[in-house]
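Example record for the data management plan.
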Amino acid sequence: MRKKHDRAFKAKVALEAVKGESTIQELAIKYEVAPNQISLWKKQLLEGAAEIFERPNKKKPEVIAAEKAKDEILKTVGEMKIENDFLSFNEKKNFLILKNINDLSFDQNQYNIRILPAAEHFFSSAFSLRGGGG
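Corresponding structural encoding:
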């Protein structure tokens, strides 16, 4: 039957193995653990030692990349939803709204207005979005 050892026990045995005051064989007898197991714990301790000194809130590069990708997807979905909502109004309402905007005869650049490409294409047959009148 296999014996389960907790982390504290593994760390204790691995540290003793790293110190080198006793051989792996002596530690195996002392703690009743296979020498190969002690060698594995020692290796894991040495490989993972640098992680102890990492900042606890530092994110791994793959986590940062995944979060960035998620943000980009959410941004794209949001833009698509806005465009879809705009185009979901019936054509008459959109025509009247955009016609009234064009009848005001103001410069779109002056007010930093951005007409969505899909809306511009959708209404280009009814009247000119870039011109001044209706």
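Summary line stored alongside the record: The chain has three domains: 7-53, 59-87, 89-134.
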